[in-house]
């Protein structure tokens, strides 16, 4: 039991330590608004500076998408509960999570 627990934790430890080596997401940077750093990260991700027009277009598209998402986003639970369509989505999501835990791989680990 102890050996299997150790072996199953190795990928998690590797991923947790490698997260510090990866670059920030350009989308996250745009949301936080350090635009200069976003452009540098995008240039590094695309590999060269020859496609500057594409990088600029992608940058503008990301900004527009985030603005559109903020306009239609649900900002609190109070907005989510009264609407029937959101209640249904919330219930389905919670049931999927609960049933996944009850009948999924977790059950196999316990036997």
Automatic annotation (TrEMBL):
Principal localisation: membrane
Record's GO cellular component terms: membrane
Protein topology in the membrane: Multi-pass membrane protein
A GO molecular-function annotation: carbohydrate:proton symporter activity
Any Pfam family hit: Sugar_tr
Superkingdom of the source species: Eukaryota
Keywords, comma-separated and alphabetical: Membrane, Transmembrane, Transmembrane helix
Localization annotation: Membrane
Keyword match Mitochondrion: no
Cited InterPro entries: MFS_sugar_transport-like, MFS_Sugar_Transporters, MFS_trans_sf
PANTHER family: MAJOR FACILITATOR SUPERFAMILY (MFS) PROFILE DOMAIN-CONTAINING PROTEIN (PTHR48022:SF9), PLASTIDIC GLUCOSE TRANSPORTER 4 (PTHR48022)
Protein name: Unnamed protein product
The species this protein was found in: Aspergillus oryzae
Lineage: Eukaryota, Fungi, Dikarya, Ascomycota, Pezizomycotina
């Amino acid at each position: 039991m102890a050996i299997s627990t150790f072996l199953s934790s190795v990928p998690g430890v590797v991923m947790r330590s490698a997260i510090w080596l990866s670059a920030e997401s350009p989308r996250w940077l745009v949301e936080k608004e350090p635009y200069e750093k976003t452009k540098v990260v995008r240039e590094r991700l695309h590999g060269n500076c020859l496609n500057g027009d594409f990088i600029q277009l992608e940058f503008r598209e990301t900004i527009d998408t985030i603005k559109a998402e903020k306009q239609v986003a649900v900002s609190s639970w109070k907005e989510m509960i009264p609407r029937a369509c959101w209640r249904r989505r919330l219930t389905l999501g919670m049931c999927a999570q609960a049933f996944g835990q009850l009948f999924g791989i977790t059950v196999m680990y316990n036997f």
